[in-house]
Amino acid sequence: MLKIDQYAYTSSLRHVHPGEKFAFAMLTMSICLAASSVLVPALVTGLTAAAIILGARVPARFYFRLLLLPLGFLVAGLLAITLTISREPDPAVYGFAIWGITLGVTIPGLYHAALLFTKSLGAVSCLYFLSLTTPMVEIISVLRRLKVPALIIELMGLVYRFIFVIMETAGSMYISQTSRCGYASLKTSFRSLAQLVSNLFVKSCYHSQALFTALLARGYTGEIRMWEDPRPVSRKNLALIALVDFILLVLVLVSWRWPV
Amino acid sequence: MKEFILEARDIHFVYSDGTIALRGATMAIEKGRKVAVLGSNGAGKTTIFLHFNGILRPGRGRVLFAGREVRYDHSSLMHLRKNVGIVFQDPDTQLFSASVVQEISFGPLNLGLPEKEVARRVENAMEATEIADLRDRPTHLLSYGQKKRVCLAGVLAMEPSVLICDEPTAGLDPVHAAQVMELFDRINRQGTTVIMATHDVDLAYSWADYVFVMNRGTVVGEGLPGEVFCDGQLLQQSDLTRPWLVEIHEQLSRRGWLPDGLPLPRTKEQLFDYIQRASGSGKPALVHLFPRGKMHPECASCNVGRK
Fold this sequence. Notes:
The complex is a heterodimer of chains A (about 260) and B (about 300). Chain A is mostly helical and about 260 residues long.
């Protein structure tokens, strides 16, 4: 998770307008999810991979490892969809029978699974594209422009900031416990971990109190207003996004009309 | 006639957990001064600062800003917080934003300033604290010293007339600590009153125009640095020590190595100058600093003395 954050700040697409990246990711994802053949989702997966590896210069190895993360969930979910279990022998089912129950797969089932697989992978790659090229702060600023309620925006911002504060606190507590043999045996490990978690909770409460005081001191009145650095929108990028998404959309419409 | 910008008159304050933080603290800050507030941990320094900014309301007593009693309605508080800025000790409790620019712009935006003015102030504050190159860095990737400077910039951008800093140099390396003190001098010359809480007696002695000493919730002493730091009893009862400059000056004077009646040196350069002048021609003075009868063959001063 931290690695993703790091790449978001160092990617070559870092200074592209966040709105452009957001639009590209969201449009492409919607088109991908609307597809009814494997062609478009596969294209989307390839396209975003190219954009991430060649465009944003994220190392390919790292990106493929990221793609493996959702793969586990996908495979488990797909097994449940592909496998057909029936009591009567069914000529459409390719499989084997035990104790009078046929266990196997059907051709439409396989196709359905493949479609679902590519669609999920395509959608996940779109989100990866956004999170690997756009820092959280900028994603939040796009959401603010889109008039997402202030409460959600502020919470997102604070949660994001405090992930790091709390992680650092937990890290230093862990080190200090370890240096006093806190994790020497299973028993002490359990005790130390329990203390770490409860302490972290108390510290977080203290932190939020102190933060509130500090915000008040700078004139906080219940709303966090945010400064946005003006960013030029690139017409070239917009045209490129429009072109790519238009082609994908046409392909989807074609596949609706003439399913493979 | 002295003009006081901030005044606390006989303030009592008890935290909700029952800790008695202030027991009749009285402190009057003169406008345009460089003020150091000294005191051990738990003496009440931070608590009195939070009163100056209107965060805490005194249980008993009064707080005055520019001669007027502080009121606690919305617009009076905004006026007070616009004029009195506090930089807290721990930067991680103050930084709320992941972006340096957004963090610094928070205060000015709360003042309802036009966008251009906000941009100008943010730039100025970043320049003054020398963090312009950190502009687009996320706050969680900053070092402790950088975070501290971002916090300072966030308050400077509000352009307060009083700047209060809680332990501004704690946790900074010597170079950055010196930079922060220079920055304080600079904004002080532009007319800002600067108040600093510190444990560092040497720093307070060299830097401040006026010193307050707090202990157990009250102000137990105040005055010019030269007066306060010569009051051994006051320092001792407040768990403080004497600055090394005062100590060495006293030792040298007592042994007759420095002429009587010289004012206390405020900087080490001043002390070195005294030593040099006391030795007449300037060169062999240091020979007197060594025990009599002992010569150091490698030491230039001893060799000069021998010839």
